[in-house]
Design a protein that fits this description.
alpha+beta; 5 strands; 109 residues; 5-stranded antiparallel β-sheet; 32% helix
Length: 109
Amino acid sequence: MLGFGPFQVDAHRRELLHSGQQIAVQAKLFDTLVFLLDRRDRVVEKQELLEHIWPNVHVEESSLYQTVSALRKILGCGKNGERHRHDTRPRLPVRGPDCSRRPLRRRTA
């Protein structure tokens, strides 16, 4: 299990928890979150993200932006950093989700 801020992610059980409470997350959103967490030490190019989350399917960039926007809402990451700061910019590579700027921590089950 991985944790950041008040969140915990269990990729094997496909669960996102906020302060111990499970949050319902659509499959593509969860896949995107786990993909970004697994690559949290580097910038993820949008093409890499598109190819991984939507393999062998042509999707518009707007689908990616909608997915990132939905994740921001779930994680409480406002565009202006109201609750947490999230370093994503339209048309630039995606870095994240590191909303709290605190180190990601591994949790034992």
